[in-house]
């Protein structure tokens, strides 16, 4: 596996959807999912801008704490060695190498798929349906290499802990800020506003979160 980047990406894409499945089935809060659900509720007259600020702020802060904490735990347990450390360094370095515009676009495309996974999961009536609805959109964005702010909140600190040659400035301004902007655009405007305007008389997207 170490010498086969394609196989590494395939395994990562196949397993990554477990994260969203656990979050949605356990009632957790994910910033990227909330970026569509709360704006949709605003467009449907069921929430306010104050609700949006609170939801986005609290969920993002919670995601930061959880992801950074998990990265620290990974390093502390001794798992961040050898090929794992090399992969963490490569991933973090690559994520900070792109310019602002392309990173925003990759984040928009990513969260369109993530929010569609949330939508499909909410429309399903059993666990099997939720799994199918989540797996394909999430695996797709991971395999292509789109940018997800919450995933990067884990991957970038993990790379720094593995001695990647990136600075806090690189992490913030070359990745997290443009990725968060792109994720919010996709969630609020493309999925949240789009589905609320199209289907407001038929279905409430905000119920999917």
Task: Please specify the SSE layout and strand pairing.
Layout lengths: L4 H11 L1 H10 L4 H13 L5 H28 L5 H14 L4 H24 L3 H18 L4 H13 L6 H32 L10
Subcellular location: Membrane
Protein name: Formate/nitrite transporter family protein
Membrane topology: Multi-pass membrane protein
Would you identify the CATH architecture? Up-down Bundle
- CATH top level class name: Mainly Alpha
First-last Cα distance: 36 Å
| Fourth CATH level, the homologous superfamily | Glycerol uptake facilitator protein
The rounded Rg comes to 17 Å
Give the helix proportion (percent range): over 70%
* Structural domains: how many: 1
In one word, what is the shape? globular
Let me know the number of strands.
0
Q: Unreliable segments (pLDDT under 50, ≥5 consecutive)?
A: none
Stated plainly, the CATH topology is called Glycerol uptake facilitator protein
SSE order: HHHHHHHHH
Figure out the total of helices.
9
Q: Overall mean pLDDT score?
A: 91
Main location: membrane
GO cellular component, one term: plasma membrane
Keywords: Membrane, Transmembrane, Transmembrane helix
Subcellular location: Membrane
